[in-house]
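Reminder to self: tokens first, then the designed residues, so the page reads top to bottom the way the pipeline ran.
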């Protein structure tokens, strides 16, 4: 077959089938999975339903069935970032409802044999057919009690979960929410909840041993974040929801075991069928699996990886990178240079103390966000790859065969439009930094001869997070229009071990900025992009990097800040509890190091800000409040710097509603067209109130 003719179109003006509306439609967020009997469960965040989180199940070859009717939405505000908003019981599902943050129980008997369109039928159970039943008291202030990350006790009489209490803040000496683990009875005798664990600033991951005789959990205190230092605790469980003496299993405050590597970050703890407590610990510099058994004082290493790890920063509840199969083996997600792979752990036949790690052939999957054993040699997982947005799949670990249960990116675009990630390692200062580069891609399109494409530099949020290599439709939106994109895993990113993660300690606004600038300079020097048409964009912490980069260099012709941090002092004094001491490690303790906060706050250096800027902000953002964006916009206006400000009603931290995802992408494309000198192929309404962008 003859090659397709090449159409020469200016970069940025390429006509693309990947519209902003398709990005929003393909932006379904998948969570889970959870498995019970023959059913696989997951959650779907649906932008087209006003960002409602729906619970879905599928049995065998039957169709996916919605199990949660509108207006219910399974989403929690604990830690503001949430996660762990739902979990399965023996014959029900528990979930936190978004609007009131109360905990509900929904009877969910087996759906085997039901046809499509019968997803709401209920048979059996004490409240079958009645819909969700609230099981927690109504708070005296709106959303005053918030619930997450629970588990039903094996006897089915009660459950344990995290509760965040917002009552009484500002009264007496209570300055912030209280976080605790509570027990909730499931009978109708009127007995109220019991506080099981209180005192630590934060708690997570309450999990029962298979026999119900032990409860484990993770806890930590200010100013640590859960990827800095945590403690894993366990206690015997007695009658009437009472705990016995608490044993610190691993990671105690001040723990420096493990060749002097300092305090450990522990997460993902859960129990195996034979009664061992298995968890991720980065005591050796990389997250590895360890185990502990009741009655012992020592912790055993299960894996001893270096250069790779089994773990990740627990921004949300429920981060767990391993699952047990019914034959006692484990399947783990291993992260190497921000790329995930799967492997089987089994006892070493030579009698070694650590387990043998055998890779699983799972082609096309490079990001794993959840996994759960389903049966002999099979595991369900939520994963994605360079050619696939997140999918719920069941994997045969012997053959590598994938049974897709749900695919989130069914947008009808030929894969020849997709740009695939190219791992990039480049010098930055006296060290190496990492990124993924995406060249412009269109099956029959090219830019004019002797020209190079404009570049969009992306800085991920967090900043303790990382960019992966899986298909990201928002990146494809740009590459299919003739842009190159580099997604930078600057120093401080996870996925490269603790030493790389710690590069940002005390250096936020320095190391990340240095790496973003050097990534762009390297690509321009290599002739892969146009060094005169560089843009930088990022959200939240990435937005701070955008502002700091524009102030600290003249490399970028334009920038886009999505709900970005402009005033570090305001962030330190006006943010939610989970991150209220985050900057102690990233900048320095406040107010003792007020000087550093003032030095690095972009709002204090707008005299050096001359590049045009687009600012996008949700008006209900509790993490980076609108006043941050409004302050930088006011400074731009006072100086006469070209800019546009678009605010979105009803959005929190990050855009979840389809109409807002569409508008934010389209107005950003319009903005770059005005600054970088091209005419988008799309018909776009200009930003209202834009200054200097005529």
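Designed residues (694 positions):
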């Amino acid at each position: 077959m003859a090659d397709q003719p090449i159409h020469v179109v200016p970069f940025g003006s390429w006509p693309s089938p990947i519209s902003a509306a398709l990005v929003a439609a393909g932006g379904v967020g998948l969570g889970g999975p959870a498995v019970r009997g023959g059913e696989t469960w997951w959650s779907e965040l649906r932008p087209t339903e006003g960002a409602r989180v729906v619970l879905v199940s599928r049995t065998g070859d039957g169709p996916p069935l919605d199990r949660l009717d509108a207006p219910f939405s399974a989403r929690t505000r604990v830690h503001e970032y949430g996660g762990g908003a739902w979990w399965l019981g023996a014959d029900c599902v528990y979930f936190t409802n978004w609007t009131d943050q109360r905990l509900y129980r929904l009877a969910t008997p087996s759906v085997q044999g039901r046809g499509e369109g019968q997803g709401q039928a209920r048979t059996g159970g004490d409240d079958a057919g009645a819909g969700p039943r609230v099981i927690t008291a109504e708070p005296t202030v709106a959303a005053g009690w918030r619930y997450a990350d629970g588990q039903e006790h094996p006897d089915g009489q009660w459950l344990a979960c995290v509760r965040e209490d917002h009552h009484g803040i500002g009264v007496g000496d209570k300055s912030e929410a209280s976080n605790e683990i509570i027990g909730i009875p499931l009978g109708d005798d009127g007995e109220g909840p019991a506080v099981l664990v209180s005192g630590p600033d934060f708690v997570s991951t309450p999990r029962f041993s298979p026999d119900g005789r032990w409860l484990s959990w993770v806890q930590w205190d200010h100013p640590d974040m859960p990827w800095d230092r945590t403690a894993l605790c366990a206690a015997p469980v007695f009658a009437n929801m009472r705990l016995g003496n608490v044993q610190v299993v691993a990671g105690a405050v001040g723990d420096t075991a493990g060749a002097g590597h300092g305090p450990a970050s522990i997460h993902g703890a859960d129990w195996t069928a034979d009664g061992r407590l298995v968890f991720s610990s980065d005591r050796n510099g990389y997250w590895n699996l360890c185990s502990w058994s009741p009655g012992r004082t020592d912790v055993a290493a299960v894996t001893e990886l270096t250069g790779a790890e089994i773990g990740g920063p627990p921004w949300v509840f429920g981060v767990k990178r391993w699952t047990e199969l019914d034959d006692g083996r484990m399947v783990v997600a291993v992260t190497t240079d921000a790329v995930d792979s799967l492997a089987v752990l089994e006892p070493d036949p030579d009698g070694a103390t650590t387990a043998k790690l055998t890779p699983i052939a799972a082609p096309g999957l490079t990001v794993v966000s959840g996994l759960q054993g389903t049966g002999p040699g099979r595991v369900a997982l939520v994963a994605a790859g360079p050619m696939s947005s997140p999918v719920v799949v069941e994997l045969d670990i012997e053959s590598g065969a994938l049974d897709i249960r749900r695919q989130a990116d069914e947008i009808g675009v030929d894969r020849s439009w997709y740009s695939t990630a190219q791992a990039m390692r480049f010098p930055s200062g006296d060290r190496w930094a990492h990124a993924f580069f995406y060249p412009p891609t269109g099956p029959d399109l090219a830019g004019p001869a002797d020209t190079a494409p404009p570049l969009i530099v992306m800085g991920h949020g967090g900043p303790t997070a990382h960019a992966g290599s899986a298909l990201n439709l928002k990146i494809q939106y740009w590459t299919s229009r003739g842009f190159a994109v580099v997604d930078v895993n600057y120093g401080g990113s996870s996925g490269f071990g603790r030493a790389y993660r710690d590069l940002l300690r005390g250096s936020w606004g320095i190391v990340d900025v240095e790496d973003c600038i050097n990534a762009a300079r390297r690509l321009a020097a290599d002739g892969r992009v146009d060094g005169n048409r560089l843009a930088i964009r990022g959200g939240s912490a990435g937005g701070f990097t955008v502002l700091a980069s524009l102030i600290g260099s003249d490399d970028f012709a334009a920038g886009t800040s999505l709900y970005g941090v402009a005033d570090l002092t305001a962030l330190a004094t006006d943010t939610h509890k989970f991150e209220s001491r985050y900057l102690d490690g990233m900048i320095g303790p406040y107010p003792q190091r007020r000087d550093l906060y003032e030095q690095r706050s972009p709002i204090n250096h707008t005299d050096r800000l001359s590049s045009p800027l687009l600012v996008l902000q949700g008006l209900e953002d509790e993490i980076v409040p609108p006043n941050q964006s409004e302050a930088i916009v006011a400074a731009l206006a006072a100086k006469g710097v070209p800019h546009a400000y678009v605010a979105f009603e009803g959005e929190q931290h990050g855009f979840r509603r389809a109409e807002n995802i569409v508008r934010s992408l389209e107005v950003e494309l319009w903005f770059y067209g005005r600054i970088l000198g091209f005419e988008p192929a799309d018909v776009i309404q200009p930003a209202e109130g834009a200054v200097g962008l005529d």
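The first helix runs from residue 20 to 25.
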